[in-house]
Amino acid sequence: MLTLDTCCKTYRVGSFGGGELQAVRNVSLDVGAGEVVSLIGESGSGKSTIGKMILRLLRVTRGNIRFEGTDIATLGGKDLRTYYGDVQGVFQDPFSSYNPIFKADRVFTLLRGEHFSGLSGSEWSTRLQSALEDVSLNPGDVLGKYPHQLSGGQLQRMLIARALLLDIRLLVADEIISMLDASTRIDVLNLLGDLKSRGLGVLFITHDLSLGNYISDRTVILRRGSVVEVGTTEQVFGNPLHLYTRSLLASVPQLHTKWKDIEIELDPGTTDADVDAWSPADDGVLVEIEPGHLVRSSNQDRTS
Amino acid sequence: MSLRVDGLRVYYRSLNGDVKAVDGATFEIADGEIMGLAGESGCGKSTLGKSLIRMDARMRFVEGRVELDGRELPIWDDRKMNAYRFTDVSIIPQYALSALNPTRKIGALATELLAARGIALDEVMQEFKRRLKLVGLPESVLERFPIELSGGMRQRVVMVLSSLLDPSLLIADEVTSALDVSTQRAVSELLVEFRDRGFVKSMIVITHDLSVLYQIADTILVMYAGKLAEKAPAETIIEAPVHPYTQLLLSSLPEVGIRYAEKRLSGIPGRPPSLLDPPSGCRFRTRCPFAWEQCGDEPAFKDLAPGHAAACWKAA
User: Fold this and answer.
1) B254 touches chain A (CB under 8 A)
2) What is the pLDDT of residues B261-307, one digit of tens each?
3) Long-range contacts of range B16-21, CB-CB < 8 Å, 24 or more positions apart?
4) Is A296 inside any structural domain?
5) Domains in chain A: how many in total?
6) What is the ipTM of this complex?
7) Least enclosed by CB within 10 Å: which of A99, A153, A174, A248?
8) In this structure, is residue A112 part of a structural domain?
9) Does residue A134 lie in a domain region?
10) For residue B271, which residues of chain A lie inside 8 Å, CB to CB?
């Protein structure tokens, strides 16, 4: 459904934009209908940049992003509106996604003016009801309230409901649950699981490996803007081949295994000195180890 | 016994009345103990931690007694507490970037901090450099501005600064929440190392992440809506919790290896009660699947086994 083909993003940095920062380098991935693909990386790995490029909030420097075969960079006017009817994003901080001056349900009203101006009042409210029910919210609990009166989980679910109203086919979920409490985050995750079984494709962007492991079908591990390992979630978590993936997995705090029982294999390239010395030329190529499981290998990164 | 807290109540002043953020906390921390303090947002864990070092203007000390190494801490008196801050009680605040003055280099910042306590930097410079090295930072950070350091480096600078005068109690408030997984492990393990090397005698680690606490804490105290719910050795809290809240909190944590398709986890329905007017009886009873009539009365936080205490009628 969505295909990224050797996408690159270069930011201009420094005073007067003299410097260049390659945030995303040659990333190719695809998301199909009814599939959750998690994009896992540490800060600065370019994961949010990829999400923003898909939502056309940022332009792609090189390469292209195609949705159902059409390059999204060429879309404009009416086509762009149709695109946003298919692809929507939800972001990390539910509290700053709302305008605190207005009631929280304004996100729905704005959407109605933009996309559903032809609907009658009763038709609209039926649609709204069913969208809210889909995200297991009771309309009476959330409509007519101000953002501060609602919990983070409720606000985040309202944003998902807003996306669902459009009958979207792809959701870009950028760290949507990292601000939520442990007791509510699992409900939002389960919601994504339910929507997936109804055919929604989800690009789940996160830094939390356990969340990615719980929900996703395929996993992409990013490091400094490029993909180091990609495969089905079983392949990547069950048989991690790249040292970076392994060192990430060894660092995840677990409930029944202590850190001292898990040795970190030092990944060349992650110490501060290595980061300074690193240059894009060391990047290596993605090699297919088993069907669907690709690992980056180069002189610098050993793979076994 | 390093820290002894008895019946501590700290409320927030608000226009609508008092917000009972910490409502009767009684616990002890032994010498060399790392106590984890866990709970959902708004359960009062940060308030409890902060009240032991500095009450902000909105906080009101109601009652209670706090003893550190046998001496009573005058936590209700902002000025008297100055004698204890940094030397006896110290804190690693939640956001390391906002803890460091952006206009000062790290070295200058340390000088000013120490001068405020009447100590010249030269006296502790040797130790300061030794500890920076221990946490894997080059000496050159002293010449750098906070903005030049990464999140993990800043967090480590603040750790070294906070514990420089070997405080008896160190409060670490959500120190790892904003860090990446690999930095999170490194910083957490450093906290343990600081204790092992005797830089700090005991520590309170505040976090919402029980899995981090399982890795580094000796004991875990779980709070719910301003009350203590359960305290036990870390192993017991994770493997054999008795309070329904602890049990539900643990069962809602996704772990590496648990998949949605195979095992569906569930959250805790409902949300924590407002602390402006908390419900009578057990505060968890509205969300608790095991609640019965008795829960209308408030359960006492009492010992079930040595080192294991809980506030639940079912556990008694």
Assistant:
1) yes
2) 888 888 888 778 888 888 889 999 988 999 888 999 999 999 999 99
3) B16/B276, B17/B276, B17/B277, B18/B60, B18/B276, B19/B275, B19/B276, B20/B226, B20/B275, B20/B276, B20/B278, B21/B47, B21/B59, B21/B226, B21/B275
4) no
5) 1
6) 0.80
7) A99
8) yes
9) yes
10) 151, 153, 184
